[in-house]
Amino acid sequence: MPSIRTRATARGVQSPLPPPGRFRGAVAVGLVATALLAAGTTPALASGPAARVTATAGVAAPSWAYRTVSGYLPSEEAPLEATATSDDGSVVLYQARVDGGSDASLLLRDTRAGTTTLVDHAHGLATTADQEAETFALSGDGSTVAFTSRAGDLLGTDVPNGADVYVTDAHGGAVRAVAHPGVPDRDVREVSLSADGSRLAMVVGHAEGVSVLVVAVATGATLYRYDGDYATRSVRLSGDGRTVVYGATADGTSALQVVDVASGTVVASLPEWSGDGPQVDRTGTRVVYRAGEGPVPPGGWFGPARFLVWDRTHPADAGTEVLAPVGLRPTGPVVSADGSRLLLTAAPSDGGSIPSAAYAVDLPGGATQLVAGGDPDGGATGTGAYAGSLSADGSAVTLWLDGSIVSATRSSTSAGAPTWPGGASLSATPRSSTAVQLDWPAAAGDLKGYEVSVDGTVVATVAPDKRSTTVTAPDATAPHTYAVTAVSTSGARGTALSADARALAPLAVTRGAAGTLHLAFPLPAGTTGITGLRVLRAPGGQQADHPAVDPASYAKVADLPATATSYDDTGLAALTYYGYRVDALHADGSTSPLSESTVERTDLPDAVPVLVSGVGSTSATVTWPPAPAGTPLTAWRVERQDSGGAWATVASLSDASRTSYADTALTPGTAYAWRVSAVLGAGWPVRSWATATAATTRGRASRASRSTRRGSWAGAPCSSAGTSSSAPPTSPG
């Protein structure tokens, strides 16, 4: 992958950062431009001036769907223009200012996993290093990040002495320095990675001059070295790691060198190179470079940029010229790994007010298409775009668009298909572990309805007057792609609006001991970029069977390690509903929803036997445990059963703080049983609080009492109100 040199400031960084999904839409434009003939049809030329191809390209009008890549961390403020993209377009590396800092952080967005990871973090911390990365590169397979930095806290043992080069696993692994022995007092200025991340090319400044090195990442072994003067720069490594391209000065003349790494042989020397960074494809077959500017047109400020494509099949040729779109002054370019597409950023050559736009040029055939930007009114293509990087086949473009990093993918539409308004996007909002809500704007034109798909499979059709639906998520273990396509009455299909979303993980909440709720939340498989978990709770009131949880009232209860799968919330009010959810913590301190919300209530303590004490001939004292704080208690109900009698209420105590009652209307020598119930408010039923305990008063019973005791005993140890046991009470010792 080519290296990226970042800028201190980005054009348009004052633009507000839109929410994810702001720039998903469709654009169908065409322009007439001069372009490159297909490789293999270019005539063989002698070394010297480049051949100019002036064939007029056909008008191309594809559609591009936009998906915002940046802005998923709430603390992101201003992404820079520079980006790097994996071969399949799913992993994007870019820089953005975070938490109001003046330096930019290096962030990696994995669109499939739905995670954003801080790459250049301080050693052992989840914060950005003390200086920003100066250049960076991403391997084609998305596994490895390389960057140069002057920071002194990346390894914990750094002693800054110029910029050094570091590599790390793309998903938040440990940062380590790349060994490059034999170059003391070094200052690494540029880096470029092979597609598998195993080889690294760099430009290194030192006391004796500037060197180009190609090293093995794992060992630091030098595979190729060139020692040049201070004009040596602009290194690029082919995807297979076998070809290195760089600018050097020989005999007072600057030229772009194309070198075979294994043999050190200079395959080609291209003197028309103007000094801007070149690009090389995966196999080192094509090299694209800038060759200065043409004549300034009448009334213009700048001449048209000239780009040459050198082909290994004609190594002696300077290359074939790709002319910029008429009236535009492009910069760049970027070439796809398979060599099939160029990406250019172009602004008006006359210095007019039309903002910059990104164009894709298909090398086999030469068709040129507007990808994004160039619309002063901020229509479907956005206002200002600056080219960044391409997927291996050129089908996905990652670029800066109106204050966000955006991935644009090429699609097609049928003739007569409905169209989306400018800036249209699909919102995919997880609602539970099984449901995702989709919302979209109204399409214009002949409209029959909308097709809704999940991972490319149509799951529903929606009436044309609807703008929202909820679909079943396949699972909550990974992100899935949701899409909505507008369809006409004739069956013509428009460009799909799409968004990725991961359904919320299930959250199980169960009642434990009194005042305790147990939470279980297994982390979805494959979840990356999470540094911890946050448990949040919201009160739901005490009204029986009617919890009232306000989603805005969730507050942090605890922060847990990222590996935690459960949590016990204790000390809660009795008979009270609580809502819970679990959020993921990220390296920059931001959070994102991880689990669904679940509501559960606490319970009362289990009933225990009532304590009977102070038993005399005509009285006894009944004692029971106090109610927990917050119990919606309105009264204590004390019930007594005498020998042969039914349960009867002997006291109703409105003082909730009472825990005893003296029963003084007893008969000597008589067996009794007592129990206590809690009379509750807020619609709760009466609950057994202290189960029946029997005792016999002192003294001799009267004849009438003894006669009654010979009859049946209806006495009652009981576990709940309204039930009793047939076992008679036992007299105390």
Can you walk through the features of this model?
This protein is mostly beta strands and 733 residues long. It folds into four domains: 4-411, Neuraminidase; 427-501, Immunoglobulin-like; 508-601, Immunoglobulins (Immunoglobulin-like, Sandwich); 608-709, Immunoglobulin-like (Sandwich), CATH 2.60.40.10. The chain is 1% helix and 43% strand. The protein is built from one helix and 53 strands. The strands form 13 sheets. The chain has a five-stranded antiparallel β-sheet, with no helix packed on it. The longest helix has 7 residues, at 703-709. The protein is elongated, with a radius of gyration of 38 Å. The termini are far apart. 48% of the residues are buried. GO terms for molecular function: hydrolase activity, acting on glycosyl bonds. Residues 710-733 have a biased composition (Low complexity). One of its GO terms (biological process) is polysaccharide catabolic process. This is WD40 repeat protein. Residues 692-733 are annotated as: Disordered.
CATH class of the largest domain: Mainly Beta
CATH superfamily of the largest domain: TolB, C-terminal domain
Beta-strand fraction estimate: 35-45%
What is the oligomer described by this structure?
A: single chain
And the CATH topology of the largest domain? Neuraminidase
Largest sheet, spatial ordering of strands: 1-8-9-10-11
Mean pLDDT: 79
The count of DSSP E runs of length 2 or more, i.e. the number of strands, is: 53
Number of helices: 1
Domain Fibronectin type-III: 605-700
Biased composition (Basic residues): 700-709
Biased composition (Low complexity): 710-733
Region (Disordered): 692-733
